[in-house]
Amino acid sequence: MNHSGPLFVAQEALCFYPISTIYDSCPRYLFYALLVASCVTRWTGWLADVFLGAAATYAGTAAIEAFILVASYSKRKDFSPVTIPYLSNNTTLRHDFPQVVTQKDTIFLQPGAMELDGDAVMAIVVTGYLVFLPLQCWSRVLTHERARNLLFYLWNILMLAGSICALVFAANKNEIPTQYMFCYPEFPPYQSTSSDGWQSSWRTSTWNTSVWETFSNATRWAEIGDICYNPCFNSSQILRKPESLESWTESNDSEISQGSQFWNKLIYSKRYIYSLIILCFILNFILLTFKFLYKSRIPSAQIVVIWRERRNIWKSFKDELRGSLPKKSESDRKDQRSDPTESSSRWNRIKPFFTFRFIKALSRMLADLCILFALFFSMIISPLTVIAFIAWIEWWIHNDGPSKESPQQVGQWSYLVGIALLAVSAGVLTLKYRLASKSELENEISRVKEHLEMLERRKDARIESETIGLMH
Q1: For residues 463 and 440, what is the distance between their CA atoms, to the nearest angstrom?
Q2: Do residues 124 and 23 lie in contact, with contact meaning Cβ atoms separated by under 8 Å?
Q3: Measured between alpha carbons, how far is 44 from 142 in angstroms, rounded to an integer?
Q4: Which member of 3, 80, 176, 295 lies 3.0 to 4.6 Å from 207 by CB, making a disulfide possible if both were Cys?
């Protein structure tokens, strides 16, 4: 093969694993819709269970992938120098190779690839964690039974752990070094190239030797099955097939190279979003402390109940503070009248406020006010945070590149159909007593009676154990 110019050129490229089908746009939007439906139908039992159960299962899968992505993060190999033909900055090859490397005769190569699933996983698990705040403040169904409440809080812990792992992985994702592809000047690359798998023979020794031997031998170049030589296809990821790797050339009109500089300059910046997430984490920690570790005078974590009992709450605050102040005896009053200078002294006026009893009462009141503050802001900040985070992360994912599948393909709309069938099944089961025959009703009554007797025995045993515990 005759070359009128350099033997080969090096061009900057983006190497990445595209978002998996399960985390593509339609399943993500369906997940958001399920969370909204869970909030809207929070007063119903079976319907909220269907929506929140489907959303929790989907988010749980994403959380487990976040664990795997962080756990499988491996240290990258050292940079390897590769000598390249020198090109001037005004080379005519820039028309066919927009990101061609110029004014350099050496580059440093470290194969790697971005895992775009990390962005989608972060969108799912962080949204699932943020929705926990408004749900626990508004939903009585989710906090009514201990078993349901336990499942709800276990899901919250799973989402918190998944969110931490997803945020850690997102920070490490930015450490991927610049990737390069090597091409013949006569054959410009396609904008997108998919990996056909990596053969060990494509790298003989060092990267420098492998690149030069590939382009010095046309037969060897033809064996790679692609126009350009992509060292990043030599990288791997534990959850992906090597063939799912893609390499994109960076150009001004490339969908994947369009950054979000405009949004970063405005309110949707990482610092702003992460600050809201941290604030919601603090509020959630306060509410969990109120729920399990601190016996507060706040009757419930539900805003409706607090508003209904607001006068009793305020009265209990005042009564406890007044009751903690020491009452003046008749002799103290006589001493004050006989010695007005002493009674008017500053210390005597503030001394009652430094007693242990008053400080304890004041601390309890401040803790309860902190809980009220957390509940109030949970209902204001958390919904806005969810909206802001979804808008930011979806814009970020949009700039990762086009969807792998369109909404018309079965891999996208199958999730919606599955949840619709689940909702229909759950609805039919709620009508089982209306549809049951006489014999079925009689059998159900017998089972309910046996179950009721078992519950009565369990209740009596628990009362007996509690009574024995009090006696001891």
Answers
A1: 34
A2: yes
A3: 10
A4: 80
